[in-house]
Amino acid sequence: MDLLPDSAPLATKLQNTLVQYHSIGDSEWRIAKKTKDATVWRKPSEEFSGYLYKAQGVVEDVTNRIVDHIRPGPYRLDWDSLMTAMDIVETFEENCCVMRYTTAGQLWNIIAPREFVDFSYTTNYEDGLLTCGVSLDYGEVRPNFVRGFNHPCGWFCVPLKDYPRHSLLTGYIQTELRGMLPQSAVDTAMASTLTNFYADLKKALKT
């Protein structure tokens, strides 16, 4: 498929899916990993045979600055240790684009470098922001990469009521890495990737 989708209905559908994930009750989640920066839970995904991960932690900064570091743009590549390249393929409007990015190998290269092409959308949510994405089957796969696929995923960032300079950052990630991989390796990598994401993000915001 080499046609880009109509952005407006895709953005609405994506936003509704993420809000639905955000309303899933605590009892449905099982803890996967906990560090001083974040807690990660998981539950079986309804999109594919792997897991939907939820990550949550408090980040000391205002919501706009945090989301500017997460969404496609100049900051992300500087601090995200997993991301090795990123290009904006198409911009629909200021808060809506298609990006192609690559990730480094993981677990001593048991998981080879991956490439993704994602539709990305950022919008207001309550007193904060939601930045979300979903992969598209678009373009040729680069040599030496496996094309991965992100099922609907995103980050909710809202200010803490009593500490407006702090934000609660909650992510929902369900990445289908594809290729011949043992599920246990994928699960180990995903939980670690998410806790590392918080640690890297916090360091970047302090600079």
TrEMBL record:
InterPro entries in the record: StarD4, START-like_dom_sf, START_lipid-bd_dom
Pfam annotation, one family: START
Any single GO CC term annotated in Swiss-Prot or TrEMBL for this entry: endoplasmic reticulum
GO biological process, one term: cholesterol import
UniProt-listed Gene3D superfamilies: 3.30.530.20
Entry GO MF terms: cholesterol binding; cholesterol transfer activity
Superkingdom, taxonomy of origin: Eukaryota
Residue ranges of every copy of the START domain listed in the record: 10-207
PANTHER family, per database record: STAR-RELATED LIPID TRANSFER PROTEIN 4
Name listed for the protein in its UniProt record: STAR4 protein
